[in-house]
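To make the argument concrete, we let one protein speak, a sequence paired with a row of structure tokens, as a model reads it:
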Amino acid sequence: MKTVHRTRRLTIGLLAFCGLAIATTATAKNPKEVTLEIVDNELVITSKKTDNDCPLIGSGGKGCIKVKKGEKSEIYLHLKNNKCTLESGTKFELNAVYLGGYNSPGKPDPSAFGFATTSQADYDKVNADFNIADRTSGLVNTIEKKENKIGINNENHSKYTVWYKVEAICKRGDGKAPHVRYSDPRVKNGGAD
């Protein structure tokens, strides 16, 4: 009888420990969420300026993400309304995330995303944090990619500001190239030190 009681307590203790370990692991990355919608065939961010720890002043507007000093984050972008009424359009899908404008005080031109003109040292910081797939365009490797959700990782080793550009495509029923839309707020990294 004592053995059964001890075994039961040990099992309950192990389950509690495993639950705590899973909960700690799940929250260790401090997930950030940005919500987007298609409004009149344009990609619009509906998250508030303060949803992801950005201050009201100098935040870069809706969709701004601040990762505090010493934190790491997974950034998830969700597309809520994906209706496409453009020529032969079917629906919008999230396609990619690009970074650019290293420490730029203003939003870079959409065609100027990437790190082709960024110093190697500064590019290395961004690449270590975000895992860049293509330096020239700033394309980021995703940790999750679905039709209405895309996720990227941010290790936040260094302090800097970088802008991100979300790409949504509207596939066409006629087989022609898809329609492409972008939205581009910023990420403010607090760094590890």
